[in-house]
Amino acid sequence: SRLKRSQLKVRFCTNESQVSRKDLVVLLRRKGFDISEGEVTAPAPATCLVLKERGLRPHLLIHDGIRSEFDHIDTSNPNCVVIADAGESFSYRNVNKAFQVLMELENPVLISLGKGRYYKQTSGLMLDVGAYMKALEYACGIEAQVVGKPAPEFFQSALWEMGVEAHEAIMIGDDIVGDVGGAQQCGMRALQVRTGKFRPSDEHHPEVKADGYVDDLAEAVDLLLQHAHQ
């Protein structure tokens, strides 16, 4: 809320693919965030745009929590596969069905809502959609199209929606590859927070070096507001 009271523009970029944008905003508002659906850039609505533009009818391997995002998408006679973080729905049967759909297509198209390796919950680290995306890529001999971080188009769409250039924006996130690396590839600067999925080894990543590290989101906000008032 301090950021929103300043003259800075704010956008929430998420790879959340178990919860719809609507439900995500409800959860964040309960935690005290001043946020609306229009301020959230998320992979499910972005994927729906891609599907409509390309005339694609997906076989969906997704979590029930985001199924409502695809209510207006034709899923009959599928000519592609869309996967998200399906959680417990990543059973052998369901992953194998997605594999079979792809193998039956003359030009197989696999779209993945992100390519994260893992994320953190209170119960520990959890496998993310990227692990299953790689399995299908390997089995089918294809390359997935990623909609979400770290895909450049995802960050660029958020920048376009805010009306700012990449060099004017700073990304704050806990993922050294998805948040920091993806943003930097688009010409943005990026701070990594030492919370969430952050691991000390991230500060010595062989390929990605954050522009700065902060202990938490509040410290990142302090830095941005200091810089904005200079």
From TrEMBL:
Pfam families according to UniProt: Hydrolase_6, Hydrolase_like
Catalytic activity from the UniProt record: diphosphate + H2O = 2 phosphate + H(+)
Record GO terms (molecular function): inorganic diphosphate phosphatase activity; metal ion binding; phosphatase activity
Enzyme Commission number: 3.6.1.1
A GO cellular component entry from the record: cytosol
Tree of life domain: Eukaryota
Cofactor: Mg(2+)
Transmembrane parts of this sequence: none
Subcellular location, principal: cytoplasm
Ranges in coiled-coil conformation: none
Gene3D superfamilies in alphabetical order: HAD superfamily/HAD-like
Record keyword Cytoplasm present: yes
UniProt entry keywords in alphabetical sequence: Cytoplasm, Hydrolase, Magnesium, Metal-binding, Nucleus
Subcellular localization: Cytoplasm; Nucleus
UniProt similarity note: Belongs to the HAD-like hydrolase superfamily.
Function statement: Phosphatase that hydrolyzes imidodiphosphate, 3-phosphohistidine and 6-phospholysine. Has broad substrate specificity and can also hydrolyze inorganic diphosphate, but with lower efficiency.
Name of the protein: Phospholysine phosphohistidine inorganic pyrophosphate phosphatase
Protein species of origin: Crocuta crocuta (Spotted hyena)
